Amino acid sequence: MAHPPSSAAPRARRLVDIVLDEKSVARRSPEVEHERAVALFDLLEENHFGLVNGEAGPYKLHIGIFEQRLVFGVHSADNRKLRDVILSLTPFRKIVKDYFLVCGSYYTAIKKLGPAQIEALDMGRRGLHNEGSELLRERLAGKIELDLDTARRLFTLICALHIKA
Questions:
Q1: Per DSSP, what are the bridge partners of residue 76?
Q2: How far apart, in whole angstroms, are the C-alpha atoms of residue 15 and residue 150?
Q3: Sheet with strand 15-20: strands edge to edge
Q4: I want to staple 39 with a disulfide (CB 3.0 to 4.6 A). Which of 92, 122, 139, 156 is the partner?
């Protein structure tokens, strides 16, 4: 028998804090820094995140890179470590590289080109971002459950970390 969702259910499947390993974060252009700040803000405002077969949230997430691996340190709201989820960076490298190339062209186009070229580059940028987000969801399947919007915002943060790795 299905139970109606309780009022605690949405809070139990969400992130309430995100910490980026500052040693892993490279400083980039103002545009990239802005995207990172917006992704962090939006992610904390609205997300769906839960450990598969693990303790309910809310969660605090520590994201960093260690020995060429992406590390998601999932903690409880009271800072107890619940689980580390470790992913190889290799599957993300090409998408991140292509994403940054298109982003660079997009930011240049905003200053110099017309609306049609800007729109084409933006579509390519969004397509690569979606591809990276879906890859993240695939790689986290069975470990962490998240919706597409949460995956998109996390992918933006991974890009900020990945470029220094």
A1: 59
A2: 10
A3: 15-20, 59-66, 69-76, 81-88
A4: 156
| DSSP code for 145 | E
Helix, strand, coil fractions of the chain, as percent rounded to 5: 50, 20, 25
Tokens read off for 100: 């940054």
Residues contacting residue 92 through CB under 8 Å, at least 6 positions apart: 70, 132, 135, 136, 158, 162
pTM of the model: 0.79
Q: What tens digit of pLDDT does each residue of 58-110 get?
A: 999 999 888 888 999 999 999 999 999 999 989 988 888 888 787 777 777 77
Task: Report how far apart the first and last C-alpha atoms of the chain are (Å, whole number).
Answer: 48
Residue 40 has which token pair? 């962090």
